[in-house]
Give the backbone structure.
Amino acid sequence: MKKAKDGATRRLRIASVLCLFFMTVEFVEKSTSSKSGITYTALQTCGGKFGESLIAHKNVRVFSKQKMITYGPNFLFNFLGGYFANSLAIMTDAAHLLSDFAGFMISLLALWVATKPATTTLSFGWHRAEVMGAVMSVLFIWVLTGVLVYLAVQRILSKQYEIDAQVMLLTASAGLIINILLGVILHQKGHGHSHGSHPKKKKGKTKKSQVSPSSFIILEEEENVNVRAAFIHVLGDFLQSIGVFIAALLIWFKPSWAIADPICTFIFSLIVLGTTLAILKDALIVLMEGVPKGLNFHILKASLLDIPGVLAVHDLHVWSLTVGTTAIAVHLVIDDSCSSQAVLEEASRICSQEFDIQHSTIQVETSSEKTAECIQCDEPSK
């Protein structure tokens, strides 16, 4: 009687995992059936910046929604598969997917929160909501991973595994198929859109950008970058799925090798920590008001010094309000014979067009004011 009950329970588990697998495949197919996660749009604008920001904002929202729809069912599938199989390796794989899913949810939430207007208390608005959310998400994933590592250690010490190798193998095989499907779709998109003749868009370069009221903003290159990044990410998930699959095969053919499950948990936990550590590092740079990645402090300072009439640049500070939104504050010492308004306009143009800085506070001082040696000004040590 007990044997028949166990058999029925196993069949129910397998049926549930299969049902979730086909649901996940359907979600993946639907979420990636559109031409791309980022729409390449040509928009004629007055000055360009507003139109580009508006389109990019909309594209990020569409891309995050599609990735969330893809990773959500995939995470649920792996979580339940790991639960039914009693496999910590699959649960750790699910934790990796959860970190991706949480990241896309935070992006969507941040896009919504960022639309809230600035207040007298929050003069910059809610730009850093995404960064704070990312930090909390990483900390949550670390706690979850720590729990899984603790359980893996307990299993090794107690030597009590009780893993359903059949469900584990089925879940691992399905995970491989899903990642192969995602990889093929993303590879086809990246290949299909890589032959365009549109100009590439570079940021943070000192080369002068030509933006006129009739300029057409082409976002195809950014779309290709996102597709390639997603493909590389799926490739990493695929390699992790291979590890789970190999462990499942070992346990299936040699049940005495069930220790492979907690060992995989340790390896995958290191992968999760490694990937989320990069996210935490970027978030902390923003919170510590560090110079944005890709912007060279010395090149920016040299560009400001090259402005005719500028004698010195000091108290230069560049930081990110959030990822992709940069601010600058600087003092420019000019010759007494120069027009402060002309210098201010040129400095603003350089910051905006050549370095893509959205918020600039520029203080122009004459040499006769003798403020170049301002004792309150902070200069970087290197």
